[in-house]
Amino acid sequence: MKISHKRKVQGKLQKHIKAVKSASVASLKKEKPVKVVAAAKAVVEPKTDAAPKAVVNASLTPKQQQILDIVRQNAEGINPKGIGLVAGQEESKAASWASAGLKKLAEEGVVERLQMGSKVLYKAL
User: Fold this and answer.
1) Total count of domains within the chain
2) CA spacing 20 to 30 A to 6: which of 39, 40, 56, 113?
3) What is the DSSP string of the chain?
4) Which domain holds residue 8?
């Protein structure tokens, strides 16, 4: 199989996976207001909140999962270098190690990127 063909197939597969994820998240967001209105089903709400997180966590790589866990531990926010250091990386490579994973997590909407002047902090949503 030619490499160019393999890249095309992988690209189409990734687009399909992203489309399925966004469609499932959109349908879950549409269902939430209906469940909030019903007072009798208030017990069901925490289960629906936990389900989207499980779907997102299942699609993460081990590195992204590790980064997400570190960001969740620091509720006030943490910078990429701090994440890399907590993960056990060398000081010179810590920020670059974490930045790629943080970018993907921010695109998926799991992590929020806050820029305060020249500093960049990441917080879990």
Assistant:
1) 2
2) 56
3) --HHHHHHHHHHHHHHHHHHHHHHHHHHHHHHHHHHH-STTTTTHHHHHHHHHHHHHHTS-HHHHHHHHHHHH-TT-B-HHHHHHHTT--TTTHHHHHHHHHHHHHHHTSEEEEEETTEEEEEE-
4) 1-59
Residues written for the chain: 125
Do residues 4 and 48 both lie within one domain? Answer: yes
Q: Report the CATH number that the domain containing residue 113 is assigned in CATH.
A: 1.10.10.10
- Kindly report, residue by residue over 31-87, the tens digit of the pLDDT: 545 544 444 444 444 444 444 454 455 577 888 899 999 999 988 888 899 999 998
Both 54 and 81 in one domain: the answer is: no
At residue 28, the pLDDT reads 55
